[in-house]
Amino acid sequence: MGASSVKDVARTAGVSLGTVSNVLNRPDRVSPATRAKVEKAMRELGFVRNESARQLRAGTSRTLAYVMLDASNPFFTDVAQGIESAAEAVDLSLVLCNSGNDQRRESAHLALLEQRRTQGVLVTPIDPDSAVLDEVVARGTPVVIVDRTRTDTRFCSVAVDDVLGGRLAVEHLIDRGHTRIAYIGGPYTLGQVRDRLAGAREAWAAAELPAEDLIEITIDGLYVAEGLEAGQRLAGLPASRRPTAAFCANDLVALGLLQQAISSGTRVPEGLAIVGYDDIVFAAAAAVPLTSVRQPRQELGRAAADLVLDEATNPDHEHSQVQFTPELVARASTIT
Amino acid sequence: MGASSVKDVARTAGVSLGTVSNVLNRPDRVSPATRAKVEKAMRELGFVRNESARQLRAGTSRTLAYVMLDASNPFFTDVAQGIESAAEAVDLSLVLCNSGNDQRRESAHLALLEQRRTQGVLVTPIDPDSAVLDEVVARGTPVVIVDRTRTDTRFCSVAVDDVLGGRLAVEHLIDRGHTRIAYIGGPYTLGQVRDRLAGAREAWAAAELPAEDLIEITIDGLYVAEGLEAGQRLAGLPASRRPTAAFCANDLVALGLLQQAISSGTRVPEGLAIVGYDDIVFAAAAAVPLTSVRQPRQELGRAAADLVLDEATNPDHEHSQVQFTPELVARASTIT
DNA sequence: TTGTAGGCGTTATCAA
DNA sequence: TTGATAACGCCTACAA
To answer: Which end of chain A has the least Cβ crowding within 10 Å, N or C?
Structure first.
């Protein structure tokens, strides 16, 4: 058991191998009686199609894969959901891989996906400009970059305008009357961290506010713990330099900051207004609901899936860089 | 390109097919010169091993899979991380599938994993007693049930003692002086929802408190939105019946409840104490840090991976039902 | 409608 | 050390 093949089924059913295959693939060409016999044999033997053999013959698989940067960030699981819905629509299955911000694991996953002849690979890479990605494509696996952009245009990518997002966040704070704010993000190897800051600066400059009043707090990663720690650094600033608002590079950081602020007795937003980024489900559910820059997460995933499918099936495919527009969702963390 | 085989490599390198295979699998048996030639040809052709063919020949794959119940619940991504670390240790790769609480998708994933001859499948099933699981095992794929238990012992499973967890939560509330509390959970088709309530009742009975003061609020699923809604129902109760504390079946629900309480002006824990379950990262990071029953998430995953590996490789494997012990983590949502 | 043969890419065995 | 060959399980022509 566990290892019976069409041949075995044919033998027990007393038919030829071709007939079994027909039952599997073109049931209409088989007489109901034989079909019943064959199906009975399959059940008895616990027959399971061997996908490797099918694929070997077909040359291609029926699965898509998404290599996530951080499976524990709800943002990425929402993106994955969008991908899944698109994949389901065309009857492909989706496999999730998690690189967990580890270059080695990312490479290992990509290598295996190539070897499996995965139809298409979506990836939020640690480094979107990494040569590894070029090699994968050069060897024939369609790759679409999700929530990141490359400096060149040799890939399809789907991203959100992070400069605009940064601008929206800071314009909102300026509108609320803030004239000294912090930008909390890092590491600066991340494109989004840079872009969101760039947007913040644009808004700041447009309002003719002095550059030194946009204070950069650099952290080591976009995690809750880093936000907590940043809050302590903020609290340590002399009152004259202490910002009245903070724009965090993502919601995890913002939630950490929020927690630190409240637990140290700072009222939000009166003592410190906070804007996050991503609008994950926990942002709205925070005890002081978080103002955040929303990215169309599911759409992001869907669009990426569509692109990779086009790349995989359309010979005239041309790379395109899709950019979505973020949107500010104002909540209690900035509005009294 | 994208489709060159060992044969092609052999041709371009001017060696035999067997030599190429040796370069791949037993490089020491090949002279450095030929090896270099072959490797050069591989690079030129963009050769990628065909995993399907390998697997067809080998009869078995080098991957484990985890079929998650809800990829957007951080609890399950943490479990997945535990599995991944165990898989990595034995050089297996892990693929994640998400059933998203959908029976059809769960079945589809399981079917595909069988067809791929996946070494072992871990699953948090929608219905642990479903016959589908028996069939998968009967056909030869090792299956371990994660964070659920079955009524029979024909499976390995890894779970946490939910009755104890429920008891711990409610004992804690009783210790804090509460004599009227709510249990918020549902649907009751979920074993954990039932077990945690059972534990709650045990504690309640042991303290000789009247059964009617343990109020059950039934919700449709363990999501943030349901917690919010439950909060409104709680607020709607006449003051004489309104509980002073709530034990929620998981943290998502607790976070929703917390948000509703605070936004409606109820102080936590003074007006309403809250205990959650799972101790996800957002529990500690909530603006009122949440008291929660911690499950050893990563260990859960690791143990499950170990069991499935044993089942896959050890002919003398015997099923075992591992049960972990939960632990109460007291935080500000219950402690003044 | 049913049966037969060839080949997908890889690996291991055996012979040179 | 290298080269030829068979086999893994499936599917699709093609022949009966």
So the answer is: C
